[in-house]
Amino acid sequence: MWNIEERNLLKLILKELIPASEDGKIPSAGLTNVINYLEKKSKEELSVKKLFNVGILRVKNFVISTKKDINYINSKDTILFLKILENEEPFFFKEFLKHTYMGYYSEPTVRPYFGVSSNPPHPIGYEVPLEESNFLESLVEPVKKRGVCYRKC
Amino acid sequence: MQKNEITKNPKVDVLIVGAGASGAAIAHSLTELGVSITCLEQGNWVDHTNFPSTKPDYELHRYSDFSCDPNVRKQPQDYPINSDESPITPVNYNAVGGSTINYLGHWPRFHPSDFRTRSLDGVGNDWPIDYETLEPFYDINSNIMGVSGLSGNPAYPYYKTTLPPITIGKLGQILAKGFNKLGWHWWPSDTTILSQEYEGRSKCVNAGTCDLGCAAGAKASVDITYWPLLKRKRVELRTQCRVREVTINNDGMAKGVLYYDSEGNLQEQKAEIVVMACNGIGTPRILLNSKSKLFPEGIANRSGLIGKNLMFHPLSGVVGIFDEPMDGFKGPMACSILSQEFYETDKSRDFVRGYGLHSGRYTTPMTYALGGYGTDKLIPWGNEHRKSMDEYPYLAGLTVVTEDLARESNAVTLDSGLTDSNGIPAPKISYKVDENTKKMLVHGEERAKEALLAAGAKKIISAGGDVWWRAGWHQMGTARMGNNPENSVVNSWGRCHDVKNLFIVDGSIFVTAGAVNPTCTIQALSLYIGDSIKKNVENLFD
Lengths: 153, 542
Fold this sequence. Notes:
The structure holds two protein chains of two kinds. Chain A has helices at residues 4-17, 34-44, 46-66, 75-88, 90-105, 133-145. Chain A is mainly α. In chain A, helix 1 crosses helix 3 (46-66), helix 2 (34-44) crosses helix 5 and helix 4 (75-88) packs across helix 5. The longest helix of chain A is centred in the middle third of the chain and has 21 residues, at 46-66. By secondary structure, chain B is α/β, with parallel strands linked by helices. In chain B, helix 5 crosses helix 12. In chain B, a hairpin with a 5-residue loop joins strand 7 and strand 8. Chain B is built from twelve helices and 16 strands. Chain B starts with 6 loop residues before the first strand and ends in a 7-residue tail after the last helix. Chain B has a single domain, classed as 3-Layer(bba) Sandwich (FAD/NAD(P)-binding domain). Classes of the chains: A mainly alpha, B alpha/beta. Chains A and B meet through helix 5 and helix 6 of A and helix 2, helix 6, strand 4, helix 9 and helix 10 of B.
């Protein structure tokens, strides 16, 4: 649906919305499948498509205004543009940001960077040992010592 | 293909509307009568093997087809809810099992004082029953649902839990030490999530996505607890049947209901007794839509109170950032520990009644990014985003769950301009957070910060007193119980004052809200009403 130019325009801002980690280990939103997710959303929902088209046009105009090839636009200029966009098109910006976050964090390859399994939670789940009853009893001991704390009526 | 005429079904003894927590419980109780029982449910059975938590993109389902918000979910069985005039929107699930499909399984009981707020604190109304009345039914229900917990909580009269507690986890242990440092009450949460195998159900695998359905079967939803028992006792369940109205005969008794089947055909089901079990929004919606010459303002509504006195539990959250990873995504979402230090009225405070501090485990990275910990605000973009997400593994949160006081102006009405797929008017919510509750929220956030700091938090993030939009899980009070027909809808055992073969068994009949998750009390109440029907069966309609 989106052509290469449009995809590149959106990637330009995606990599600033969720930048890579300083050490480069965690990728930016521009380097994951976020663009594919956004395109899928845009295909599924007409209202999203219309909204994203507004954004694409604004990014295109921004790139033209820099008089630079898209590959040479620096991060500082893009961030400045995004701040203007956030102010002037708040509804688009919030929705686009929301979908960017959803696309990024639904990537199974991204979750492990935050300690969360790339697998679905079921059926394996996580190993968390049950507390030993002695340990738990010692933990609640001060609470018990204070006595009843409800009103009898 | 849709037919024009109404299909009439043979009369049954008991007709229950709604196959969720309360409907299943009363059906179970009434099976002892050996009468014919039919239950109509607008949703369908859900396939536990296909829950979102089994899919790689599981988090996305939380914001689409498995959202707790029916206005987002928009599944065929859902009805829309107009919440334009409310800071809190009701959330639910429509299926066999009702909202127990996507609830979080937190299972605290009401306190004895919750039934006596007028006598004790001069607010709300006293219930016509008390804690002791419900106590045996809490126990019966616990055994059917399978409740894990630690017996001996000093915030309650003694009761024994069915199973040992689930793990409170690293997060719970650290917070517990903080509460101990302050000398405040806390206790491992009671929950319907299994700490060990029980009645053929598996124990919890700590997946952390209880709201997306428990594919392990460790969380008790009533489709896997009560309904297998009910099927064995030949309770008839008709799914994808949406009730439009309760009909009435010339004697002022409920005749039965009119409902739309899955094909959109209108059917009539007559019954000796009709039981409403559609939650605190769905029940008043149907009753208000059941207009007749005898009841022009909705069936059983001579008091004018159906739909009024809507109570939620307004919530806000506070998060602490700790020095070490808290593993908050591991383990049941809402159930770790619960502090009821500030539950009861303390005259030195500027509010009456109280609140609980619930230690929810925080969920997955996407949910954090989209709303933080209940702040309903996206976390920042750019470099700030990366900093926020760097903190994600180190989070632990406390949720302030406040008691709501009944106000007639907080109400469910019908919105004739908004309908479901069968053309039935949608419920409209008019609701404002009470001044007393606002003070509680402020107090609660400050105490939550203290507790988190005492536990070792290095930084605090707070919602700043804003209530969560999707906090409308607990819907109560819209057809309340009482002895006086002028200021209540049902009597002390759930029978409508105005229509003596019409019963209500869901959260609608709550007189007060307490400050705890209500499903445990809803089901105990439903079992108690079933018991009362059995005891009064000889003179049920006197």
